[in-house]
Amino acid sequence: MGKEYQINSDTLLWNKFIAGDQEAFRDIYNRYVQSLYRFGCHFTNDHALVKDCIQDIFVKLARSRSGLGSTNNIKLYLFKSLKRKIIKSLDKSGIIGSIDLEKLPFIYTVSVEDEIIDDESERIRYVQLDKAMSNLSPRQKEAIYLKFVSDLSYAELSKVMNMNYQSARNLVFRGMEKLRENFPKNMFLFFLPSNRLRLKR
């Protein structure tokens, strides 16, 4: 029911936007700009670059509105657009050289620096999770972030990461298996943002 409502909501909002409704455009921006920024900051520590890329995306959307096709998933559309934009910007600046998606950095570490934690055992679990995350490949970190933090489906995740559906499932599974070697899966899920997960940027 939730996904169906999102599809209907996104379709209606997007159609209003491409029809010229400025309020719909502002709604799209306000609804997704923060999640876009958080996602973008996992690819680079240059937060100004991330902000510029997001601005460029929305400027392009506004200018090319009448020529855009339909979509029933605005978040997926914007995530894909931002990732392509950041990769293009990093490649143009010479930071990552020739693009190899397997070597594209993804910064995803857990921090307790800003947390007030009275329970020492809980603090230790944060440190253990941080250590477990450091053993994952950048692609595994990205897949887990998209699946469990951004709440994308495997189909959506596969499109953002430019891979087929089964490969996306396998990537998440391997990442979770590696996490579970040092950190129980159920404990990892407990530390997701809906509880108290903090991501360093």
Descriptive overview:
- This protein has helices spanning 2-18, 22-40, 47-63, 74-93, 120-134, 138-149, 154-160, 165-182, 185-190.
- It has 201 residues and is mainly α.
- The chain has two domains: 2-93, RNA polymerase sigma factor, region 2, helix turn helix motif (Rna Polymerase Sigma Factor, Chain: A), CATH 1.10.1740; 106-190, Winged helix-like DNA-binding domain superfamily/Winged helix DNA-binding domain (Arc Repressor Mutant, subunit A, Orthogonal Bundle), CATH 1.10.10.
- Helix 2 (22-40) packs antiparallel against helix 3 (47-63), helix 4 (74-93) runs parallel beside helix 7 and helix 5 crosses helix 8.
- The longest helix has 20 residues, at 74-93.
- The protein is elongated and about 55 Å long.
- Residues 112-117 and 193-201 have low confidence and may be disordered.
The mean pLDDT is 80
The total count of strands amounts to: 0
User: In terms of structural class, how would the helical and strand content be classed?
Assistant: mainly alpha
CATH class (first level) name of the largest domain: Mainly Alpha
Rg on CA atoms, Å: 18 Å
How far apart the termini lie comes to 34 Å
